[in-house]
Amino acid sequence: MADQEVQNGGAEKATAEAKGKTTLDLIVELAVEAPKAEDAVQFYKAVFGAVEIERATYPKRKADQERPLLLSALLQFGGNKVMVNDRLEDDFKAPEPGSKHQNLGLRLVSEQDVEAVIEKAVAAGAVAEGGVAEDRVLPGKHLGKVRDPFGIVWTIVGNTTKTFAAENDTAAVPEGRILLL
Amino acid sequence: MADQEVQNGGAEKATAEAKGKTTLDLIVELAVEAPKAEDAVQFYKAVFGAVEIERATYPKRKADQERPLLLSALLQFGGNKVMVNDRLEDDFKAPEPGSKHQNLGLRLVSEQDVEAVIEKAVAAGAVAEGGVAEDRVLPGKHLGKVRDPFGIVWTIVGNTTKTFAAENDTAAVPEGRILLL
């Protein structure tokens, strides 16, 4: 087992170096019941010492809405990144009362081809969930989801060489224009 | 709002500097149905390019058990840390079929006093879940849980000035001796 691990680790490092995979990044997504994401951001800054790096908001949908909803607020917790969203759709199932379920997700961001990463994961036993679409948070990036053999769902974010017809992207593009602040 | 954010950010940074809070660390916990955590670690290394930093195992419980269960395997995903565990107890509820629920947790590790962080969170609207106990993964550290006002449960890991009677720690200490490899 020890030998196998060393071999795996060595091969993986060599592959990573060959691919120039220097930008692998894991982002924790916290989906908060809209419109409380802004309050959540303030809580994480004040209580846990998180630092806000950047944010993107949804356009205002109603004239009487006091503030735009958060598509994504990126917070830094030490060396780690957390993205806080206002949950508009059923991206994450709401926790049941008394349940320990959380509205958490994991985004794995790299410069790799998103289809290639998904194919590699599927070959290793993961199941692709839905297709690949444009990322509404990171312009120019594309994403897809896989459920790994251990039940964890990962959002894979990366590059793509494919072009997508507009109708294929509907699910991933929010209504209206995204305002990047 | 912009002014408020700048003020909050400034005040928080000053506080962080005053406290020497340089070790804030966020660790994502992935709870895997035992005994598959080892397979999960190999999957994350081979497919996602994660690098294993360290591991701790439970002692073998059965003579016929081929390998010890993973109490904690710490993986590095880029600059981020992920801890993979064999789930023995009902720490995390198993996902229901077809549900998007995940066995994810967040550990916030710092050099701060764990009771102080929990009190601060509770004062800001969080609810403490259970008491403070010794951390079975990080020797010398203590931990407690809070559910924030937005439904996210955080495991707060830090220091403590209190001494705990052995009977108070039962829930957090696995059976047998912990082997740190």
UniProtKB/TrEMBL annotation, chains A, B:
Gene3D superfamilies noted in UniProt: 2,3-Dihydroxybiphenyl 1,2-Dioxygenase, domain 1 (3.10.180.10)
Domain VOC: start-end pairs: 23-159
SUPFAM superfamilies the UniProt entry points to: Glyoxalase/Bleomycin resistance protein/Dihydroxybiphenyl dioxygenase (SSF54593)
InterPro entries xref list: At5g48480-like_C, At5g48480-like_N, Glyas_Bleomycin-R_OHBP_Dase, VOC_core
What is the designated name of this protein? VOC domain-containing protein
Q: Which species does the entry assign this protein to?
A: Rubus argutus
